[in-house]
């Protein structure tokens, strides 16, 4: 900054003083003497204000002329001094403005350090009723180096770069069998079991089920193993990330799901996450205004709240986009940091809580699946099986998520919907006892 101030001043002086060097030296000496002796007893730079320095510079000249002999050189120097002083004032103003800008930049430093992605080009808004915000993010560029072995498997298994994926170990062998038997019956070719142990990998291979056995040496798996249960539920989201990075859309599926139609014929594919709901009717599934009543508030006793039953983290379609991958990272990160958290609660909190002071919310687009087509077991056992119209409809999948007796209910669903046994669902209670 000093350089900036001094530079023009020196340039200016040399430009105009082309006369004899002795004269210059004398003139400068005289001038400085006059200035210091008569006008700046308290120091030349006592005042920083450009507004003050200007008139002082002018008054300089009149005083300077009296003790010093007038000559053309001195006059030249006087006018030169005025112009230099003016330049100085301008420079000081410039410096003050720059300082202000610097301070502003300091204030914004925190924000500037956070990368902000602005999507797309600016557009003019269209006429009333025709504008639509973007909800469909672009797919990431596929990166095969993330997991070349999985990339090879997916090349063979996926159809149009999408597939059903489940995680399984030996504990859920019977359910996995019902799971893949119905997938095969419906004729879905693009599905894959991620085997968490050797036995389930062998079981899948024996049954001609596409299987991907994790390499126990792979970093995140060993972390999961040493980290206990919660790290294992984080593992699901960590593994899913690799599928997305490889450029595939994944329909993540628990094993307690019966496939009755091919779900890929019923997806919208317009959102980062498209998920089945735990809701059981239009309001609980798709959202409603839940009015909270506080009579003591009198006139303002009603407070309106936004409510919705959570998304089911055991069945969702996730596209390979940056918001999707951010979601997986955030969920996996929290599951490994918060030992008592439940993955479905975390999944929903990350998806739905907006940004607020101290928190940057995720900006992922979401779509709730039709709760009759992608049906949970509460809808089936509380409503559908008792309704003569609804019970005639064929869902796409049924998830036995609301009941602990999963295997017998899965088998009953197959009896009812596949084998046409009308009373197959009758013996079960609505809920669990
Ligand atoms: C639920 O919503 C669907 C369409 O969104 C509509 O056709 C149906 O009538 C609604 N049902 C009830 C009970 O409101
Ligand atoms: C079933 O559908 C018929 C015809 O649309 C209707 O008249 C009847 O009320 C419905 N029954 C129930 C229980 O919703």
TrEMBL record:
PROSITE patterns: PROKAR_LIPOPROTEIN (PS51257). Its EC number is 2.4.2.-. It is a single-pass type II membrane protein. GO terms for cellular component: Golgi membrane. It comes from the Eukaryota. InterPro entries: Nucl-diP-sugar_transferase (IPR005069), Nucleotide-diphossugar_trans (IPR029044), RRA1/2/3 (IPR044290). Residues 74-115 form a coiled coil. The keyword Transferase applies. The keyword Membrane applies. One of its GO terms (biological process) is cell wall organization. SUPFAM superfamilies: Nucleotide-diphospho-sugar transferases. Residues 188-407 form the Nucleotide-diphospho-sugar transferase domain. Keywords: Cell wall biogenesis/degradation, Coiled coil, Glycosyltransferase, Golgi apparatus, Membrane, Signal-anchor, Transferase, Transmembrane, Transmembrane helix. The chain crosses the membrane at residues 21-40. GO terms for molecular function: glycosyltransferase activity. It is found in: Golgi apparatus membrane. Belongs to the glycosyltransferase 77 family. This is Glycosyltransferase. The lineage of its organism: Eukaryota, Viridiplantae, Streptophyta, Embryophyta, Tracheophyta.
């Amino acid at each position: 900054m000093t350089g900036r101030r001094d530079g023009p001043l020196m340039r200016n002086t040399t430009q105009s003083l082309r006369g004899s060097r002795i004269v210059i030296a004398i003139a400068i000496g005289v001038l400085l003497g006059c200035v210091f002796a008569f006008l700046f007893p308290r120091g030349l730079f006592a005042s920083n204000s450009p507004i003050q320095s200007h008139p002082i510079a002018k008054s300089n000249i009149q005083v300077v002329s009296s003790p010093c002999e007038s000559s053309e050189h001195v006059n030249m120097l006087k006018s030169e001094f005025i112009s230099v002083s003016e330049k100085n004032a301008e420079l000081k103003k410039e410096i003050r403005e720059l300082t202000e800008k610097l301070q502003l930049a300091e204030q914004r430093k925190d924000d500037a350090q956070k990368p902000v992605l602005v999507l797309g080009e600016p557009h003019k808004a269209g006429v009333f009723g025709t504008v639509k915000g973007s909800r469909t993010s672009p797919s990431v560029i596929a990166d095969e180096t993330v997991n070349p072995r999985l990339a090879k498997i997916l090349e063979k298994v996926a159809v149009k770069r999408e597939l059903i994926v489940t995680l399984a170990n030996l504990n859920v062998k019977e359910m996995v069998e019902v799971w893949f038997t119905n997938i095969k019956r419906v004729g879905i070719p693009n599905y894959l079991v991620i085997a968490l142990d050797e036995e389930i990998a062998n079981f899948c291979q024996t049954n001609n089920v596409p299987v991907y056995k994790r390499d126990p040496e792979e970093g995140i798996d060993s972390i999961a193993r040493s980290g206990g249960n919660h790290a294992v539920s984080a593992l699901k989201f960590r593994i899913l990330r690799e599928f997305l990075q490889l450029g595939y859309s994944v329909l993540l599926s628990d094993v307690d799901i019966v496939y009755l139609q091919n779900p890929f014929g019923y997806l919208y594919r317009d959102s980062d996450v498209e998920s089945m709901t735990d809701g059981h009717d239009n309001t609980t599934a798709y959202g409603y205004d839940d009015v909270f009543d506080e009579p003591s508030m009198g006139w303002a006793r009603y407070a309106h709240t936004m409510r919705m039953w959570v998304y089911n983290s055991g069945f969702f379609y996730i596209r390979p986009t940056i918001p999707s991958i951010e979601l997986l990272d955030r969920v996996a990160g929290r599951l490994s940091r918060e030992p008592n958290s439940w993955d479905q609660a975390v999944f929903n909190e990350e998806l739905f809580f907006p940004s607020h002071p101290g928190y940057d919310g995720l900006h992922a687009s979401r779509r709730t699946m039709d709760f009759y087509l992608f049906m949970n077991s509460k809808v089936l056992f509380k409503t559908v099986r008792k309704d003569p119209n609804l019970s005639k409809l064929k869902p796409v999948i049924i998830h036995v998520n609301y009941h602990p007796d999963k295997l017998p209910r899965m088998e009953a669903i197959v009896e009812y919907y596949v084998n046409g046994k009308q009373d197959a669902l009758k013996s079960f209670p609505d809920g669990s006892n």
